[in-house]
């Protein structure tokens, strides 16, 4: 995708329950996705074949990475190696940018 955004926060929207995702950039070596998790939603434990970062835009949640809990609050930046086991849970509406790279 070849788009420019003046304010990423304007793309944030929450459903009544569940998770919305918006793919912002996708290429062979780089993916950027906005995730919006409604209060109480969660992603069960999974892995990715790519390394990644999570940058929290707003909210309150918990990121469990290889057994270690990290608060998901505004400004948090979390790095993941490829194949790292992780899960997420939103205590409040929580949005974040996920980057995946080779």
Describe this protein's structure.
- With 102 residues, this protein is mainly beta.
- Helices cover 0% and strands 57% of the residues.
- The chain has a single domain, classed as Jelly Rolls (Sandwich), CATH 2.60.120.
- The protein has a five-stranded antiparallel beta sheet with strand order 1-2-9-4-7, with no helix packed on it. A four-stranded antiparallel beta sheet has the order 3-8-5-6, with no helix packed on it.
- The mean pLDDT is 94.
List keywords for this structure.
single chain, 102 residues, mainly beta, Jelly Rolls, five-stranded antiparallel beta sheet, 0% helix
Can you give me a brief rundown of this structure?
The protein is mainly β and 102 residues long.
Strand/helix succession: EEEEEEEEE
- Report strand order across the widest sheet: 1-2-9-4-7
Overall shape: globular
Q: Could you give a short account of the major beta sheet?
A: 5 strands, antiparallel
Unreliable spans are none
Please, how many helices? Answer: 0
Tally of distinct domains: 1
CATH class: Mainly Beta
Question: So, CATH architecture?
Answer: Sandwich
Q: Roughly what fraction of the amino acids lie in strands?
A: over 45%
Give me the secondary-structure topology.
Layout: E1 19-26, E2 30-37, E3 42-46, E4 51-58, E5 60-65, E6 68-73, E7 77-80, E8 86-90, E9 94-101
Antiparallel strand pairs: 1-2, 2-9, 3-8, 4-7, 4-9, 5-6, 5-8
